[in-house]
Design brief:
- By secondary structure, the protein is mainly α.
- It has 2 domains: 67 residues, no CATH class; 50 residues, Arc Repressor Mutant, subunit A.
- The chain has a two-stranded antiparallel sheet.
- Helix 1 runs antiparallel to helix 2, helix 2 runs antiparallel to helix 3 and helix 4 crosses helix 5.
- The longest helix has 37 residues.
- The two termini are 28 Å apart.
- The relative contact order is 0.11.
Length: 159
């Protein structure tokens, strides 16, 4: 897993929080009331022209608002599903780290979203030490994942 993949968790979580805030604002503001004047006449002869003032909700505006809320809710739900998948993968990755201190650093950094300075103060370490441990661990993991090309030379590839 790369640092970029690990960082996606916090980014998606922030995106979901933003979508929730947008939905809440739209729901709280409600539909704007509109007023207009319509022309009519009296019920009986002689039919005298009259003007009436009406106030109500613009159905087109209300429909657009409701549609926008539904679209934002769909996006939020999709992002929630994506977040749960990423969160599960990250938790699996982090909890498989054998070194307890490195595991704590990764948890604080990528799940809780702490800065390296905050992690350093929690673990009584220097910020640069936090950065070095993250980089060193990720580099070690990447070298384990890369296939050994030299071992493949001279072998026939399966078809």
């Amino acid at each position: 897993m790369t640092e970029q993949e690990l960082s996606q968790y916090r980014a998606i979580k922030n995106e979901i929080d933003d979508l929730c805030a947008r939905i809440k604002r739209l729901e709280e503001t409600g539909v704007q009331m509109v007023s207009d004047r319509v022309r009519g006449s009296s019920k009986h002869f002689p039919y005298i022209q009259k003007y009436f003032y009406i106030t109500g909700v613009d159905p087109e505006e209300d429909g657009r608002r409701k549609k926008l809320i539904q679209e934002l809710q769909k996006k939020r739900n999709k992002k929630l599903d994506e977040l749960l998948e990423i969160e599960s993968n990250i938790h699996d990755y982090i909890y498989k780290i054998p070194d307890s201190e490195v595991r704590q650093i990764f948890t604080f950094r990528y799940i809780d979203g702490y800065s390296q300075e905050e992690i350093g103060s929690k673990l009584h370490m220097d910020r640069s030490g936090i950065s070095k441990r993250i980089t060193k661990y990720l580099e070690r993991q990447q070298t384990k994942i890369k296939p050994n090309i030299n071992g493949l030379i001279g072998r026939s590839m399966p078809s």
